[in-house]
Specification:
The protein has 423 residues and is an alpha/beta fold. It has 19 helices and 11 strands.
């Protein structure tokens, strides 16, 4: 007869899924007993939850032959697992902001510290994974929550590290199918991604991991585009390289030397939206390729900020696309010009080096076209360069349709200044 085991973090069983970590063990690592005594016990946090009218997960699983569907029940903390994005999962249980947790619990309500508020916490969501060991005829079950890392941490604090229960809506994965780890992750990550979209506190990185792991097309496109352009983003390339096999692994060759993009804003909405819709894919391709080459060859920077991608794409669109039946230059010419700027300024000790990190929206200037003019086309540098490249006797003026297009994209408050600075 098959043996059934619901795996606890205290069972001594090494998880059969490589992406899983225990929230309880993570909390105890952050807050060993002495730290709880020193920092938590003195606060006297309360836990106002009352789950006596809800069934326990152990009883529910046994009564339903270990296959349940959307049942709200209590779960002892030792049975809660999370899928870590550091282990090719989708969640971020290691990144709990404990200071934020104590700040929330220290809030005064009617003169008392709020502590853990069941009304605020609501109900968690979890899935039951399964793994069958043929050698021992044993079915192992894992309860994997896909949201609520901070809620779990606050409840652990309120209970001062002692055992506690959480309330969750639980459903089993489809046990009629032979599911692999990536199949479980895809289903769970989809729910996490929906929750991330609803929660303003979920950041870009969290949404990317959950969206990518759950197979949302726009995030899969984003990952594939980053891979094509040889850009890292928050450790994803290392994870995928380590999991890749045979020919696919070759796509990640030298990934550790690729620059890291600090934000995927404009790249994470699909190949027909965001940056691509605003500037056109060819212009975005050239912008990223140009800046990546500048970083690796001349500035030696390992980080590429998102602003410089928008700034450079706007320059390619204005100067290389056709406006009033004319262009300023080809994509390759503009790429060479920008790379020459970086090369000359970074290799000439008499020049202030142009650095990617300096392309930022600060000091009240949050206009990509204005920044493009200030960084690339201020003064006569471009005209001196292009006259040699195109064997021209004269340069361009700000009235040329290409530069007019660039200036027209500047906010009205800065447009006069942009016109004055351009060329």
């Amino acid at each position: 007869m098959t043996k059934h085991i619901l795996v606890s973090c205290h069972s001594g069983i090494t998880p059969h899924f490589s992406d899983l970590v225990s929230n309880t063990l993570l909390f105890k690592k952050e807050y060993p007993e002495q730290r709880i005594v020193d920092e938590i016990s003195t606060k006297n946090y309360k836990d106002d939850s009352d789950y006596q009218n809800y069934p326990n997960i152990l009883k529910i699983l046994k009564e339903n032959n270990y296959n349940i569907s959307n049942i709200v029940c209590t779960i002892p903390d030792e049975y809660i697992w999370s899928s870590s994005n550091k282990l090719r999962g989708f969640d971020r249980p290691e990144d709990v902001r404990y200071v934020q947790c104590t700040t929330n619990m220290d809030e005064l309500v009617n003169g008392e510290k709020k502590g853990f508020s069941d009304k605020d916490a609501g109900t968690l969501n979890a899935y039951v994974r399964f793994f069958y060991d043929e050698d021992t005829d044993t079915m192992y079950y894992y309860i994997v929550k896909n949201m609520g890392n901070h809620r779990f941490a606050m409840k652990a604090m309120a209970n001062e590290g002692l055992p506690f229960e959480v309330l969750a809506k639980v459903q089993s994965h489809d046990n009629s199918k032979e599911l692999k780890q990536e199949d479980f992750i895809k289903v769970e990550a989809d729910g996490h991604h929906a929750d991330a979209d609803l929660r303003a506190s979920q950041n870009e990185n969290q949404k990317f991991y959950s969206g990518y792991r759950s197979g949302h097309p726009e995030f899969v496109d984003c990952f594939n585009y980053l891979l094509q352009m040889k850009l890292n983003y928050n450790g994803i390339m290392k994870q995928e390289y380590e999991a890749a096999e045979e020919e696919y692994k070759e796509k990640f060759k030298d990934y550790e030397n690729w620059p890291n993009l600090n934000s995927i804003q404009g790249l994470n909405k699909g190949l027909t939206n965001g940056l691509f819709a605003k500037y056109g894919k060819e212009n975005v391709d050239y912008a990223i390729d140009t800046i990546r080459k500048a970083a690796t060859k001349f500035t030696k920077e390992t980080q590429i900020n998102n602003t410089i991608i928008w700034v450079t794409a706007s320059a390619f669109k204005s100067l290389c696309d056709i406006h009033e039946n004319r262009t300023v230059c080809t994509h390759r010419e503009l790429q060479k010009y920008i790379l020459d700027l970086f090369k000359f300024s970074n290799q000439n000790p008499m020049q202030d080096p142009i650095k990617i990190k300096n392309f930022t929206q600060k000091g009240g200037i949050k206009d990509y076209n204005y920044i493009a003019i200030e960084k690339y086309f201020k003064g006569n540098v471009f005209n001196n360069w292009i006259k040699k490249q195109q064997d021209r006797k004269t340069g361009f003026t700000a009235e040329h349709p290409g530069f007019s297009h660039l200036i027209a994209g500047v906010t009205s408050l800065l447009r006069k200044q942009a016109m004055s600075n351009c060329l």
